[in-house]
Amino acid sequence: MSEPGRATAIQGLSVREVRAREPGLGSGLCALLLDSVAYGASIGFLSSLTRDTAERYWDEVFDALGERVRLWVAQIDGDVVGAVQVTPCLKPNGRHRGDLQKLLVHSEFRRHGVATALMDMAERSAARAGLSLLVLDTIRGCDAERLYQRRGWQRAGAIPDYAGTPDGVLHDTVYYYKIIGR
After folding, report:
1. Most buried by CB count within 10 Å: which residue of 9, 77, 147, 169?
2. DSSP classification of residue 9
3. In angstroms, what is the C-alpha Rg of the chain?
4. CATH 3.40.630.30 assigned to 13-179
5. Local structure of residue 178 (DSSP, 8 states)
């Protein structure tokens, strides 16, 4: 039996990088985004998020894949249960860094190692691509913040009332960084 609050691995979980638009993948990613927002994830969307808006969002991500965005998905038996993105800095003085963003795990699969598997893959891939620094932001005190701390991310600071949850309530945002690939 696992310790309370610790992840238990899910049989059949696979994580892979998505390099181009794939038939059917957008539908699973839309469902993941809608579920994440419905369960309170502060990822830039309000509770009024519609499927059309979610589809447009993923279309933009697919269009940016490659140099501007890297995307990893977690799947079980072909069903999307998680995703994460890294956006490398394109400025000449920042080509060593990237933003880890939109870490999403479907509500039915949280606390089972999906986020850890996604972050492992994203961090390793970013390091292989030549990045040495990743940054991210999250709501102060949320479950994700504890995950980042356990994974060795360092707190850089907080900004009061920076971002809202899907219900529109403002919360402090905490910034984290992690040195990778050294």
Report:
1. 147
2. P
3. 16
4. yes
5. E
pLDDT in tens, 120-129: 999 999 999 9
**pLDDT one-digit tens code per residue, 29-77:** 999 999 999 999 999 999 999 999 999 999 999 999 998 999 999 999 9
CA–CA separation, 130 vs 98, rounded Å? 10
Q: Does the global pTM surpass 0.90? A: yes
Give the integer Cα–Cα distance in Å for 68 and 62.
Answer: 10
Chain centroid to CA 75? 14
How is residue 37 annotated by DSSP? H
Q: Which residue has the tokens 């920076």?
A: 162
Q: Is the pLDDT of residue 176 over 80?
A: yes
- Token duo for residue 119: 């972050």
- DSSP letters for 45-97: --TT--HHHHHHHHHHHHHHBTTTBEEEEEEETTEEEEEEEEEE--SGGGTTE
Contact 32, 104 (CB under 8 A): yes
Name the token pair of 45: 């969307």
